[in-house]
Automatic annotation (TrEMBL):
Residues 15-73 form the HTH tetR-type domain. One of its GO terms (molecular function) is transcription cis-regulatory region binding. The keyword Transcription regulation applies. The keyword Thylakoid does not apply. InterPro entries: Homeodomain-like_sf (IPR009057), HTH-type_TetR-like_transc_reg (IPR050109), HTH_TetR (IPR001647), Tet_transcr_reg_TetR-rel_C_sf (IPR036271). It comes from the Bacteria. Keywords: DNA-binding, Transcription, Transcription regulation. This is TetR/AcrR family transcriptional regulator. Residues 36-55 bind DNA.
Length: 193
């Protein structure tokens, strides 16, 4: 009776294990940014040795979980209609961005507390480029301010989203109000003086 070759099977098993571990990391860290690797391994249904065979450190695992969440988020954000008036397009983008940020606040907290400074912003490159292009278009239309550095504006928008998510998580801002608050804050930030 012929047997399956162990090479490809191990590779497929490894890929499934990696996917389960990353999914479990997203789930665990989204619930608790301090979730342990033991918790993540247990949720993934793998042993610690398997987890550490794929992710040597907790930081590597957190980064993989964040990258996975950002890749899923990119699919959502790339579908947002950015046509028409820049202010209206920004409101649509913020609504989608807010919902994604709200879902992954604790994961983002874990990443900010674990990854090297600046790495979280670096991983947010594609969303940041989208926001920057929209701001530039709004500036060209005269709808958005031009007196502050672009990198500052994009960073502040990112910070507003993260802060709103933290405020919601801490029950200091109602979840059903957060999208409106984020949009109003960012729109007022971008309004020319």
């Amino acid at each position: 009776m012929p047997t399956a070759s162990p090479g490809p099977r191990r590779r497929a098993d490894a890929e499934r294990n990696i996917a389960r571990i990353v999914s479990a990391a997203r789930k665990c860290l989204s619930g608790d940014p301090n979730a342990s690797t033991d918790d993540i391994a247990k949720t993934a249904g793998v042993g610690r040795m398997t987890l550490y065979g794929h992710f040597r450190t907790r930081a590597e695992l957190i980064e993989a979980a964040l990258v996975d969440a950002l890749n899923e988020g990119e699919k959502v954000l790339s579908a947002v209609d950015l046509g028409g008036n820049a202010q209206a397009a920004l409101s649509r983008l913020l609504a989608s961005s807010w919902s994604l940020t709200a879902e992954s606040t604790a994961l983002l907290t874990a990443a900010q507390g674990t990854l090297p400074p600046g790495r979280v912003l670096e991983l947010h490159g594609a969303p940041a480029e989208r926001v920057e292009a929209l701001i530039r278009r709004g500036q060209d239309e005269g709808a958005f301010r031009t007196d502050l550095p672009m990198s500052w504006l994009v960073s502040v928008i990112h910070s507003v989203l993260v802060t709103a998510a933290e405020e919601t998580r801490g029950d200091r801002l109602k979840a059903d109000e957060a999208g409106r608050v984020v949009t109003a804050t960012v729109q007022s930030l971008l309004t020319p003086p």
